[in-house]
Amino acid sequence: MKHIPRKRFGQNFLTDELVLSNITRVINPRPGQTMVEIGPGLAAMTRQLLDGLTQLHVVELDRDLVARLKKNFSPEKLVIHEGDALQFDFASIPVPEGQKLRVVGNLPYNISSPLLFHLAEIAPLVEDQHFMLQKEVVERMVAEPGSKTYGRLSVMLQVRYHMELMFIVPPEAFDPPPRVESAIVRMIPKPGALPCDIKKLEEVVTKAFSQRRKVVRNCVAGLLSEADLIACGVDPQLRPETIALEAYVAMANLLSSRQV
User: Fold this and answer.
1) Which of 11, 51, 68, 236 is deepest in the core (most CB within 10 A)?
2) 69-114 pLDDT per residue, tens
């Protein structure tokens, strides 16, 4: 029976064999690695990943798709975690000593940002992440200071990851075709991430980018003074989208140092 994609789950199934092969080549799954796929769907990517892996974990919310997966794969090859990826504890997946978890998936566009932040909490446990996302989101993730797309998402992810847009995927590669272009992004956790109070960074960045057209002094008024900005090496007259990651980290750490 043909599975009808469900809008509430943001289901767009990748069907283009060439694109699937290209993604698998970029991921390069190898025997003995511990990998989890988020949203395996109709298992088009799952099958290709299993060609290179000994075993694969998957997280799937749709009960009908879970039933299909159980019917088509042995539990020794495919370990199925039924539930919402936003609530799933990825750190619970057992990984052999000396290894780290690899994460892949065609992420539902309607939950992509919160899911990325959920995964960021376990970044030290992860070797790499490869995701299919809306191209616009990936462009924001990898944007550099001075770019129109540089913002909260850029800063909050770049503090933890090196990221690279690998290639673009057209709408016709999916069933049903989404209304936007997609892109594959590679995310590698930074081994020597900048020491930072993430909650304070979130506070600073959210306030800074809430009024992009204003200078940063006005954006963070009430949180940081002009003298504070200067102490962090930031020109108070700059606009938020021109300020480097390291400067935002410095602002967050200054706030954190004032906590009793």
Assistant:
1) 11
2) 999 999 999 999 999 999 999 999 999 999 999 999 988 888 999 9
